[in-house]
Amino acid sequence: MRNKPENIRPTLVKDYEVNYRDLPFENVLRYYRNISTLRFINKVVHKRVLEIGCGPEPLFKIFSDYDKMTIVEPGELYYKMAIEEAREDPRIVFYNDRVESLLEFLQEDNFDIIIIGGFLHEVSNPDLVLATVRKIASNNTHIYSFVPNAKSFHRLLAYEMGLISSIYQMSEHDLLFQRQVVFDKDMINGLIANNGFQILDSATYFIKPFSHKQMSGLIESGVVGQKVLDGLYNMVKYMPDLGSEIYTEFRIND
Description:
Blueprint: H1 16-21, H2 26-42, E1 48-52, E2 68-72, H3 76-86, E3 92-95, H4 103-106, E4 113-116, H5 126-136, E5 142-148, H6 153-160, H7 172-176, H8 185-194, E6 197-205, H9 212-220, H10 226-234, E7 245-252
């Protein structure tokens, strides 16, 4: 086995990590995102886990039933936060790099699951990321990813109000993070399938009526509380395509 590479700190968008961490309403949405992620994890074998892009809340903070977890995080701030929060857990391996630079190291593991954090819409080379994941995964690996939904209720509302000319138009947050595209379900699943994967399941979650900033204001004013938020999460069964984010479960297409 080769030694893992030295700590590498790729260049990211200036202040990206701080902006993302402080994004209004993101912590609330992350709570419901984690519910969806845990539902996926708990229905498949999950002893050896690869998380690509852990962000401010790595997987080991929300579940612990694994033998080994490998975390690939290109951001220096999130990388350092994750190491500190792991408290030297010997089961966790960290890389401060991009996944496409780690192929020869990650191919040595036989991962049960791979979680691709919500960044495929933010990078200019999602095909390269998926091609790398395909080489890392085995036929038994289950893969999970999530991205914002172009057909989210709040985007459709903004369109019908005349605030945006298209539901695929970049929002202020999209521009802040220099995002590349706003996916709908067909687009993200087409991207995944075109890179040699079989889609096992895909749906949206959490009906978000308004923008992050507006939702945050409603919570701070007391207009929206936990019961309302839980109700919005459950409302997706009536509006299955209009959730705030899209998840996709997939595996190598034999």
